[in-house]
What does this fold into?
Amino acid sequence: MADLLTDQALNELELSDREFIRYSRQVMLEQWNEQGQLTLKKAKVVIIGCGGLGNIAASFLAGAGVGQLVLVDDDCVELSNLPRQLAFEEGDIENAKALALANRLREQNEHIEVVAQTQRFDADDAHHLFNQADLVLDCTDNFATRYALNHSCVAHAIPLLSASVIGWQGQLLLVDPNQMDYGCYQCLFDSAQDSAANCTTSGVSGAAVGIIASYQANEAIRYLLGQRSSLASSLLLIDSQSLQNQILKRAYDENCSICNAPRQKENVNVD
Amino acid sequence: MSTNKNHVTINNSQTICITPGVSTVVDVMIALEINKKVAIAIDNQIVRQSRWPKTTLNGGENLSIFAAIAGG
Ligand SMILES: [Zn+2]
It folds into this structure.
């Protein structure tokens, strides 16, 4: 995988006149402003999974001007993906999702860098993949990768914004290395979850995917802008049928094999 | 919201009576015949599974019972 911008290049980044016009509506927001836009331009976000959630979240981040996006997925586009994976067209069928999405994002915004990795997430490659990353988005479609990704993000102290969707419902949480009192993904769901249900076996509403991916993208942008996210301490349950969301408070599990070791190490260092 | 002090409300719909034999989270799970992996929140605070056997319900609580989902 090619490296993205060097530190020096990042420090020299400025907004061009064309970028300023392009982003003018969001820069108008008090919580966003020009400095925030520059922060987004310097940001690197790694998106694991380029299916329904990854498609839409990546498109919003590209549109918003997040400067460096890394897309990871080993799947190819299928006809049954098209109702919810809106960045893909019929001509993309059988092409690698990561490459097809990267091409679309480059067409969407000439001011950003996009790297595609057509492999399944590999924890052994996490050190390189997460190098200088500000945030990782979990947009995957299976528990095995979700647990592996959680483990890698905790180990590398990289924030993880995890979204999932099935049927008409979704779940969203942030594992923030600076707020580990609220635990990690595995604290919440131990590693023996029933794995049978996924979009292929249980079905999914494309619009529900859009809702949850939009929440995920919005929280990603807010996090990059330095805004406080309630998702670091909670789990958001989204029900697109009842239109009722529920925020549940999280706490770390002292028996968690993933996040308890770094926490104990931190305590030793503090003492 | 649950109004009956002898009952807990499950996912804002079903209610279950708290008795001497059904008083902990585990008791409720058995009474509801829930065998699959789920997470539970009491009044919007998630309770980790290791604490279910000792978490006593007094009545009036709202339980949210949900499973992890993995689709993307
Ligand atoms: Zn944990």
About this structure: The first strand of chain B starts at residue 7 and ends at 10. The pocket of zinc ion is lined by residues A 183-184, 186-187, 252-253, 256, 258-259 (CB under 6 Å). Residues 9 and 15 of chain B are 4 Å apart (CA to CA). The helical segments of chain B are 25-31.
